[in-house]
Amino acid sequence: MGKMSKIEDGDKKRCCPECGSINLVINYAKAEIYCADCGMVIAENIVDLGPEWRAFDSEQKSKRARTGASMTYRIHDKGLSTPTAVNKIPGLHLPRAWQVHTTNAKERTFIFALTEIDRMASAFRLPMNIREAASMLYRKAMKKRLINGRSVESITSALLYISCRQYNVPRTLEEITKVSKVGQKEISRVYRYFLREMNLKVAPASPVDFVPRFCSLLNLGSEIRSKAEEIAKKAKEAELTNGRGPIGIAAAAIYIAAMISGKHCTQNEVSDVAGVSVATIGARYKELSEELVIEELNIFL
């Protein structure tokens, strides 16, 4: 059977001149467009813009396609180069200078930086848009000559941290430090430097953004997560988050929500996941329980 497809709404508006129907079908095998309702042929000898080859599985499709992957900033050449497998051709011996693509030191550093971004992002299972954003920021910093005199590890860690904040998928500096090869103080210093020099705007992290991930790591259900988010929102509305770290507020909200729901969850367990001290969670818990009106919490106070 020939290849056929319906004309979607985004295509050129056409309708059947016989019955007025817009239910039109393209039959590539017969090179015609016909009405699926009354069967009238509307156009003949249409051009098939698809490939002239056929593929029966994804492996054949990738081998026979003559176009590469889409452009990406995660690769140093944006994925636009054309690789040639000269070493796989039997009997062909080219000069070594032709077989090995040498790069200068600057390009090798650039490739290493993009690899570091991808490595850390993979450890966090971050989506592709954040990886692309961090790679784009590195390109901009390199263009403005802001990377000179700083280690690649500290730069990539800071830029990935910025990208996470910009896309509302926050990661704490402690988490970034765990997968990075430099210390937290160095990452924090480079982070502030790039915000200033590149004029980047990063909104303050909200405690609500951290609640779903922390609840997932603690194996807490959706009921506790929803209650913790509600408590965190109340704390923000009451301006209890001013001057306090969002992670501590989120951790205390989760602890309170778990307590209300009857789930056994200690401050130590929340502390291990959130990366804040037990003393901080205790202080935020005291503030939230005293300042917020949480009806279910009254039975525990």
Description:
The protein has 301 residues and is mainly alpha-helical. The protein has three domains: 1-67, N-terminal domain of TfIIb; 105-197, Cyclin-like (Cyclin A, domain 1), CATH 1.10.472; 207-300, Cyclin-like (Cyclin A, domain 1), CATH 1.10.472.10. It has helices at residues 58-64, 96-99, 105-124, 128-143, 152-166, 173-179, 184-197, 207-217, 222-237, 246-260, 267-274, 278-291, and strands at residues 4-6, 24-27, 32-35, 41-44. Strands 1-2-3-4 form a four-stranded antiparallel beta sheet, with no helix packed on it. Strand 2 and strand 3 (32-35) form a beta hairpin. Helix 3 packs antiparallel against helix 4 (128-143) and helix 3 packs across helix 5 (152-166). The radius of gyration is 28 Å and the shape is extended. Mean pLDDT is 79; it is low at 85-89 and 96-100.
Could you give a short description of this structure?
About 3% of the residues have low confidence. The protein is mainly α and 301 residues long.
Tell me the radius of gyration: 28 Å
Going by CATH, the architecture of the largest domain would be: Orthogonal Bundle
Largest sheet descriptor: 4 strands, antiparallel
Number of helices: 12
Distance between the termini: 73 Å
CATH topology of the largest domain: Cyclin A, domain 1
Low-confidence stretches: 85-89, 96-100
Topology diagram in text:
Blueprint: E1 4-6, E2 24-27, E3 32-35, E4 41-44, H1 58-64, H2 96-99, H3 105-124, H4 128-143, H5 152-166, H6 173-179, H7 184-197, H8 207-217, H9 222-237, H10 246-260, H11 267-274, H12 278-291
Antiparallel strand pairs: 1-2, 2-3, 3-4
